[in-house]
Every structure is written in structure tokens, then in C-alpha cells.
Amino acid sequence: MNFLNFADTIVINPDGPFGNFLEFLYVFIIGSFLGYLAEVLFRRFVSMKRWINPGFLRGPCLPLYGFGLGTLHFICVYTFQYLCDPKTVPAYYSSLAIGNGPLSFWAVCLISIALIGIGMTLIEYIAGLIFVKGLHIKLWDYSNLKGNIQGIICPLFSFIWLAAGTIYLFGVSPALSQAIEFLIERLWGMTFLLGGYFSIFCLDFINSLILSIKLSGKAKSLNLTVDFEKFKILQVKDVKSDRLTSMVENIKKSAQPITDKISEFGHEFKKHLYIGNEIPKKAGGENDETPRTKERNINKDDEIKS
User: Fewer CB atoms near the end CB (10 Å): N or C, the chain?
Assistant: First the structure.
């Protein structure tokens, strides 16, 4: 029996504990990657006007968005499952696990959106406190926005989370639920996709954590909080400067035979401009005279002798 046939014999219940765990892992991957893309584009075209790798990790992953999308997803799943009356649900949402609740579809939607805004803001605040208070590192800074709390959360971004939750609820949730159920029911997807992704994720997390601990130690000793974005910008500048210096040195080395040939040709050409093909020297050993001045000096010597 090959692996694919073996995998087909194993059935995973999407509604069971293990199925829910796998569901969260898949949502985490999707949210982390999409959040990374969103932050890269936001920094490039809105906030910083430059390409920069956002967040704590080096790879294309922002765990905050992974946990955020997981929160978003399960809020939608459980509010519909326990609160929604199935008779009021539009056909497009029939793929969702609908229970036998007392509330109408639109009432549950409003509750879900409110919980999403609160949940996302709370996740952002907890993550910010861990880094700012625990590691003395700022991953983002809202201190220049109105109504901010410790520069970690603010009304503007809470509203953005509400908007994102609304888009997710009405545009993404049913399709995502179907896609995740498809993956969960196939063991090969869990084995290769999750295994490969989280192996790379763990290595990236460990390397980034080591860097952050070192940076945190420096920050604590100086009693300051490091702006992680600015730190990464300085790192990029240093790397670019080192690369530029190395590139210039390599170009010089590669061009050295050519420049030597040009210099030799120039020296030989210059010799032919002087009488006797001899370039005159200064007292210090440097070339000083031109062919015309040397010719004039020779004529003067001839006049004196005569």
C-alpha cells in the first residue's frame, strides 16, 4: 500500500478536536502570509514609502495576522453555529456549520463583526505589550495617532479591523471554510503542507528570537525601547553599503589589467612627445617639464656654450 492509498484510508472529522486544530493551523498559515503581503504594500505605498520586511520574523509570515485570522474565523464559525437560526441564512452561506440558534442571520452578523473588532484589537494590544514591556522592542507605533493607548492600539486601526472583519464575513468566510475542509479531509495536505511550513517557521522563529533577545538586552541596559522598523532599515543600509563597497573593490580588481595596459600605453605615448624619448623629472622625481620647455632649455644651453 503506497502513501496516498494509506492516506485515503484515514478519515479526519472536521468537526472533531483534531479537525479544529488542523483548521486553525491552515487559517494561521493563510492569515500570516496575507497579512505579510498587506503590511509590505502598506509600508511601500502609504506609511514609509519604501520596501521593507515587516514584523518580527525574516520570512513572509506575520503571526499576529495568523492569530487574528484564526480569531476572525472561529468567531464566525461559532456565532453562526450556536446563535443563528438556519431558516434565515442565505443560500451562499449554506456551507457554514449552522446550528439551531434563536437569532436571525443579520443579527448574528452584527454580533460577529463587533466581536471581531474587539478580538483583533485585544490581540494587537497583548502582542504589543509582550514586545514593548517584555522585550523593549516596538514592532509598530501608533503614538502619533489620536486616541492611542501606549502607542499600541488606536481607534483608527480598531475601525480597520472591523472593516476587515466585515469583508471577511461577507466575502471570504464561506469559500475559506470549504477550502480548509477539503484540506483537512486529506492527510497528504496535513503532512506535507503543514509539516514543511512549520519546520521553516520554527527555524525562522528561533533565529529571530535570538536576535530579539540580543537587541532586548542592549535596549534594557540603555533603558530605552528600540523601534524595530528603524533598526531593520539601518541594517538594510549597512548591508547595502557593505555590498556596494565589495562590488566596487571587485570591479577595480577585475579592471586592473585593463587600467594597467591603458597606463602603460599612456606612458609610452607621452615619451614620444619629449626629445630623446625621455620624460623630464623634477628634483623630487616627479615629471615637471613639457616637450616645449625642455627644447627651450636645450637651446639656451647651446647659446651659452657658443
Answer: C
